[in-house]
Amino acid sequence: MFCNCQVHRRGLFRFGAGLAVAAGLSRMGAARAQAPSASAGPLPSRSEWLLRGGHVLTMDGSLGDLPVGDVHVREGTIVAVGPKLDAPGAQVVDCRERIVLPGFVDTHWHLWCTALRMVIRADDPQAGYFPTTIRVGPHFTPQDSYIGVRLGVSEGLLSGITTVHDWSHNTVTPEHADAELQALRDLGIRARFSYGASQAHPNTRPMNLQDLARVQKQWASSDGMLGVGACLRTPGVAASRGSIPVDLFRSEFDAIRKLDLPMTIHCGPKGLVELMGNNQLLGPDMLLVHPQGMNPTELKMVGDHRAPWSIAPVIEMSYSAVRNGIIQYEELSRMGVPLGLSIDASAATNADFFNVMRALMWSDWQRHGAPQRLKPRRLVELATLEGARLLGLGDKVGSLTPGKRADIVTVRTDALNMAPVGDPYYAIVFNGQPSNVDTVWVDGRVLVQGGRHTALDPAKTMREAAESARAVNERATRR
Hints:
The protein is of the alpha/beta class. It is built from 15 helices and 19 strands. It has helices spanning 6-10, 21-24, 129-136, 142-158, 174-187, 209-219, 246-258, 272-278, 296-305, 313-324, 329-334, 353-368, 376-390, 424-431, 458-478; strands at residues 48-57, 65-74, 77-82, 91-94, 98-102, 104-105, 161-168, 190-195, 226-232, 234-235, 243-244, 263-266, 286-289, 309-311, 339-341, 408-412, 437-442, 445-449, 452-453. Strands 1, 2, 3, 4, 5, 16, 17, 18 and 19 form a nine-stranded mixed β-sheet that branches.
C-alpha cells in the first residue's frame, strides 16, 4: 500500500531498552542498564505523508466525512483534509478500500497485569482476576510491570488504539512507576499514566504523594504524548480491594488537586457516588469508572457536577453485571455527562476496541430493544473524539482536524468479514476486528503497517511476557 515508503524498507525494530528496568532504574528514573538480550532501535521517524483516496471519517463536525478523500500529514501534524490534495514530495499511501479515521482512545486500562492472562481464570473464586492480582501484585518487579505494559500496548496498537490511560493500581515502588512510564515512552504510544497505591498498600497509609509529585515533574511532557494523573482507592465503602477512611481519601484528594493533576476512581461499591457527592469529591477532574448501580440521587449528583465517566462495557457486561447492575449509559448521555470507552483489563479480556464498541451497543439493545437508540456513529465518536476530550486531549487528537496531531488509523474494507461496505460506521461497529487494522500512525510515526508492528518483535514480546507471568506466579505461590 505504501509508495516509496521508508518505513517499509526499514523492517522490524525491537523494543528492549526497558527490559532491564528492575536492575537499572534508579529512584529518580535516570539510569537504565541494558539487558544482555535486549535489542532496541529508535522509533520510526516522522515524515510527510499523503493518505490518498480513502473513505475519511474526520469526526469533525465542520469537515464531515469524505467518501473519497485525502489526508496530508507533515512531521506529525495534520496539514489538510480534502479531495485530491496536492502534496509534492510526500510519501503516498494508497487508501482505496480503506476507512481512514482518528485513532481509538482508551480511557481506563490496567496494563501492568496484562501477562497474568496466563494464570487468570475468568471470575473463578480462587483464580479469577481479583484474587489473582491481589495475590501476585506485591511480587511484581519493575521489569514485570514494564513487560505487562508492553504486551498490552502492543496488542492495543494492532486494534487501532493510539492513546491509552494506564491505570496503575500496583505502583509498588517509584521504580515500578518509572518502568511503566518508560514502557509507554519506548512504545511511542500517547498516554496518561495514573499513579496509584500497590495491591498490598496498607489502607491506613496514604499513597506515595511525594513520588507522585516527582513523577509529574520528571515525566509529564508538554507535547501531549505523556501525561500524569492519580488513581485513588475507595473511600469509606467496603470494597473487594479494601477501603480507606474518608479523611484519608480527602487528604489525598486535596494534595493531588494542589498538584493540578487529574484523578480517577473505580465506582463499583453501592453508595460510593453519593458519599463522594456529599463530601464534595465529585468534579470534572475526577474521572469515574464503571457507571452501574447508581440511584436517582447519585445520577443527579453526577449530572450537577459534570463528573466524567469511563465505560468498560466488555468487563461490565461479563464480570460486573451481577454485582453492580446495568450500564447506565443512556442516563449519563441524556444529562450530557462526558463519556469515554475502555478496555479495563486485558488480563481478563483482550484489547479489541471494536468489541468494546459492540458491547456497549449490545448493552443498549438489551435494555431497550429495537429501534436501535445508540447508533454506530456515536460509538465511533465515543471511541475517538469523546475519549480524547475525556483525557484533556481534545485539542490535540480525536479528530482529523488540520492542526491536530496525526493519530490516524486505516481499516481495510477488502476483507471477507467487512466486504461489501455501505455505511463505514456500521461496518466498523458491526463487523470490524483488529485484523482489519492496516496502518496506525501515532503522532505521525507509523507504528503498524500492513497489520504488523514496525518497531517491535512480537515473538520476543510474547515470550518474555510468558516468562514474567510464570516467574511472578511462582514467587507468589512460594510465599
